[in-house]
Amino acid sequence: MNTPAYDSDNIFAKILRGEIPCHKLYEDELTFAFLDVMPKADGHALVLPKNPSRNIFDTAPTDLAAVVATTQKLAMAAMIAFDADGITVQQNNEGAGGQEVFHLHFHVVPRHEGVALRPQTGKMADPELLAGHAEQLRKALESL
Known about the structure:
Blueprint: H1 11-16, E1 24-27, E2 31-35, E3 45-49, H2 61-81, E4 86-90, E5 106-111, H3 127-143
Antiparallel strand pairs: 1-2, 2-3, 3-5, 4-5
Helix pairs in contact: 2-3
């Protein structure tokens, strides 16, 4: 398989290096989780490996396993924090697959029965609202 090389200047790489701020939710040796600033629903989080990987095709199996474990942890916390009826976990690969940021990541989106996801508008959510959502998720993570 011939996929393009990893771009170390992508926005998630910059977040991992601390060059761009984020609402951090969780971090361990191999993974990092933070809120999406353009959420499709309240509590929409992103989970990614710390090691450079463009997508699922070039990610080391140990990194992928760690990301999935953290995704599960975030999904459980989101169910609690947002009294969700369910969770959507989404992962896209390459442009044709819907990937927009070329660093492997999983979306964890709390869902409520009968409530549609917000459309992608390109507009960032209110920072104070995001800070409150981050706090809710961090508290739920602590309770697990």
